[in-house]
Design brief:
heterodimer, A: 311 residues, mainly alpha, MetI-like fold, 2 domains, 2 strands, B: 263 residues, 12 helices
């Protein structure tokens, strides 16, 4: 970093660059203003009731976001539940256990999972994953655990569970990449100290995991942020029905998929306004969630000069 | 424990291979030259994705034209020029923007461009994709610039060059290949975006290169065909998916080979 000089060219250059930085800030401010002003009609009409109402009936002019909020949260939680153990396992394997010549190509392949677009996961979800779950996974689950309300009701392969699983596949490369950065940023002296005290390799890894805990928490929250806003793949497999059902087999709806599905169909202003308000909610939630995650991850990786790999 | 963690990794890699090979298996059947150049036809008459490929190219060109210069400038600002609280705020915002759902970007662009213009347009789609591109490009640019050794800057400054010439003439070229690969990854990333295009560029069943009209894109076409009830369109969705994945994986693997020596 250099300090200002007396050069005119420098002054102009710095001014231009400052404007560019200002542009980024103004984009975020403009997003809030645009989303808030376009959802004003719905905010005025429903107030906080929007978040609590169960009924989404565009024909009657009733708009309540609760089914979408429920679907979004539950599908994301299913995704985290499946993805977090896998991501930790992958990260530990690649950073602590696998030899370098294995870790690099395998790490690249895991990251490639993140390069597959959402819509492609959706196509694969509709035609491969959903039928697979319908035939091989959901019937035995219903027989074994059918006494739980979570696994009751008709089996279609389309629903919350399928949405959660596809989300889990999509966020695993993201979480594991950030956890890898976090683990790599834990100083080698920690490992040596643990080993020198007579710890086994596994005990040493536990020390490393505890050391990286805040960063790992950040990685998980980052994955949560991604899962909350993921649109296309979920839209294609979750069933898109604005109802709350305890069963994971039942069709559901998320905030993002409601916007994707109904935005171009919204015929009256109130309907459109309610959908924009859903967008505003999603924006605010993901902004906060990502902000928290960034702070947690930064504290671990930036201090030690690690470079964040994940986008 | 090594077995368990290794199994996790194996499972993830296995899934990747299963997904990719299944796309190849289902896609290859409907793939031929006519499919790549023809425009869509009604069910039963074949048709292709030529208009969607053209549309995606137009959208990517538009978004690169807006997004790359801006993203690289933001990266320069973060790495070379800015300091203090405001810069930290910008860095925080750039980082957080990468996590904003792309569908929200779509709604935002709809509100500021589509509503005032009163119709969907390729221009709006390009802006939406550019907004997704900027933070990604900015981050990689910042990181690449930070890898450039300080002695290079000091040497140029000692020769009497003003700071702007040092940055643009010495530091930026030194990081150029890294920034270029970052830009390519950003293009690969937005070429798979669907959600922000649904209500900005929308879609079209005809060849179009007008920037103020709706335009087709590979991803939206894949989506529309996949959720349609027709087997023929499903087959075309798989073939279009194969085309899209070839492009995206091609870029990713190419970048990997270019950067292998340096990282």
């Amino acid at each position: 970093m250099l300090s200002p000089t007396g050069n005119t060219g420098d002054a102009i250059f710095r001014g231009l660059m400052f404007l560019v930085g200002l542009f980024m800030v103004s984009v975020v401010i403009a997003m809030v203003i645009a989303l808030a002003s376009d959802s004003m009609m719905s905010i005025r009409q429903f107030g906080f009731g929007f978040l609590k109402s169960l009924h989404w009936n565009p024909i009657k002019g009733e708009f309540g976001a609760l089914p979408f909020i429920y679907g979004t949260i539950v599908s994301s939680l299913i995704a985290l539940l499946i993805s977090v153990p896998f991501s930790l396992g992958i990260a530990v394997f690649l950073v602590e256990q696998a030899p370098h010549y294995v870790a690099r190509p395998i790490g690249f392949l895991v990251e490639l999972l993140a390069a597959i677009p959402s819509v492609v996961y959706g196509v694969w979800g509709i035609f491969v994953l959903a039928p697979f779950l319908r035939v091989y996974i959901e019937p035995p689950t219903a027989t074994l655990l059918g006494w739980l309300p979570l696994f009751q009701g008709p089996i279609t392969g389309i629903g919350l569970l399928t949405g959660g699983i596809i989300l889990a596949i999509m966020i695993t490369p993201i979480i594991s990449a950030v956890v890898r950065d976090v683990l790599a940023a834990v100083p080698g002296s920690q490992r040596e100290a643990a080993l020198a005290l007579g710890a086994t390799k596994w005990e040493m890894i536990r020390v490393v995991l505890v050391n990286g805990a805040p960063g790992i928490a950040g990685a998980v929250i980052l994955g949560l942020g991604r899962a909350l806003g993921e649109t296309m793949a979920v839209t294609m497999v979750i069933g898109n029905r604005p109802e709350i059902s305890l069963s994971l087999f039942a069709p559901s709806y998320t905030i993002a998929s409601a916007i994707a599905n109904e935005f171009t169909e919204a015929t009256d202003d109130l309907y459109l306004s309610a959908l924009v308000e859903l967008g505003l909610i999603l924006f605010l939630v993901t902004f906060v969630v990502n902000g928290i995650a960034r702070v947690l991850v930064w504290n671990v990786t930036r201090k030690t000069g690690g470079v964040g790999r994940a986008a | 424990m090594t077995t368990l963690t290794g199994l996790c990794t194996l499972f993830a890699v296995g899934l990747l291979i299963i997904i990719l090979s299944y796309i190849a298996y289902r896609g290859i059947g409907s793939l031929n030259f006519r499919f790549l150049v023809d425009s869509p036809r009604p069910v039963g008459e074949g048709g292709g994705i030529g208009n969607a490929i053209l549309g995606s190219v137009v959208l990517l060109a538009l978004s690169s034209a807006f997004g790359l210069p801006l993203g690289i400038s933001v990266g320069i600002y973060l790495a070379e020029v800015g300091k203090g609280r405001f810069t930290s705020a910008v860095r925080f915002i750039v980082d957080t923007l990468t996590g904003i759902p792309s569908i929200v970007t779509g709604v935002f662009v709809y509100a500021i461009l589509v509503l005032p213009m009163r119709h969907f347009s390729a221009f709006a789609g390009g802006v939406a994709l550019a907004l997704i591109m900027i933070p990604i490009v900015a981050r990689t640019t910042e990181e690449m610039l930070k890898l450039v050794p300080h002695s290079l800057r000091e040497g140029a400054l000692a020769l009497g060059a003003p700071q702007w010439r040092v940055i643009l003439g010495v530091v930026l070229p030194a990081a150029a290949s890294g920034i270029a690969t970052g830009a390519m990854l950003a293009i690969a990333r937005v070429s798979g975006e669907t959600a922000p295009l649904l209500f900005t560029a929308n879609g079209s069943r005809f060849f179009s290169y007008y920037l103020d009209r709706p335009i087709a894109s590979l991803t939206v076409q894949i989506y529309n065909y996949a959720i349609s009830p027709y087997d023929e369109w499903h087959a075309q969705a798989w073939a279009a998916t194969l085309v899209l994945m070839t492009l995206i994986l091609g870029i990713n693997i190419m970048v990997r080979f270019i950067t292998r020596k340096r990282f």
